[in-house]
Amino acid sequence: MADPRPRALWKISNQLSTFQSGIFTENCVVLAEGCFCEGIFKAKAVGLPPIEDAQKTRDFFGPINIFGGSAKQCVKSISKLVEIERKQCSAAFVILSDVWLDDNLVNGFKALVDLIQEFPLIVQQSHFIFVPSLQDHLLNGIFPKPPLPSSVLSNVLSKLPRHHLATNPCRVQFFSQEIVIFREDIIEKMCRNCVKVPTDVRKLHHHFARTILSQNHLCPLPLNVSPVYWPFDFSMQLYPIPDLIICCDKYVQYTEKFHDCIITNPGSFSTSKFIFQVYYPVNKEVDDSSLPED
Fold first, then answer.
1. Phi, psi for residue 29 in degrees, rounded to 5
2. pTM for this structure?
3. pLDDT classification of 175: cutoffs 50, 70, 90
4. Looking at the domain 54-290, which fold is it?
5. What are the pLDDT digits (tens) for 238-263?
6. Where are the domains of the chain?
7. What sections of the chain are H helices per DSSP?
8. 269 in helix, strand or coil?
9. Rounded to 5 degrees, what are φ and ψ at 243?
């Protein structure tokens, strides 16, 4: 709304206003229909902006790299990468979230690495990406979060030649695919700070996925609720929308798809029955998995 006054007044009634699909928070950009009466805009219908297809975005901007990284050209415009990717039939991403190794960070990592070393082929051929959470030591509560300190874990992780201490959120390029990984209990936080909770709470993940794609942002919340280093806000943006968004949340396991973008959550590995997910990039499929109880 464009208004020359210092503050434009809105009136939204949960009883009289119609809300479309989505989780409407204070910081969201919305499309509203209503009437302007006595200096107050009374909204009758509120909805989210339409999701822009990634291919339309790339057609407009051309082959430049917006996703990130050192490459100047968008990986999707490199036909050779697409051809090589199709041959990676055995490639897979094993995704674990909310993994509590131990209260003692170093000892917990050591136990994990010792377990991985029992499988030499996995050590030699796999990449291990460690994304910090808000509960990790030595880290504050502002996004994007820095990687886990290598000085503390260097002796342990030296046994894994292909380990990566990533930021939160972080970005991964797998040949022509663009992947964003974000660790935060974001659905609960957005519901606590929304204007109106969606009617069908069983489909909160559907509303959440639609919201972050329409806002092109991982965390469309006010800064007082979810602080962000403003010069690095670009790391939270989803424009153009990537192929895969992994939102590691303690919320229930889910997978949603909008405009060829997959939004998935592996669930809590530690508080559930050791659930996790496996993503197969060749056919762009996500399998829900879990460890046997015995």
1. -90, 125
2. 0.90
3. very high
4. Purple Acid Phosphatase; chain A, domain 2 (3.60.21)
5. 999 999 999 999 999 999 999 999 99
6. 9-47, 54-290
7. 54-61, 79-86, 105-116, 120-125, 150-157, 186-192, 204-215
8. coil
9. -75, -35
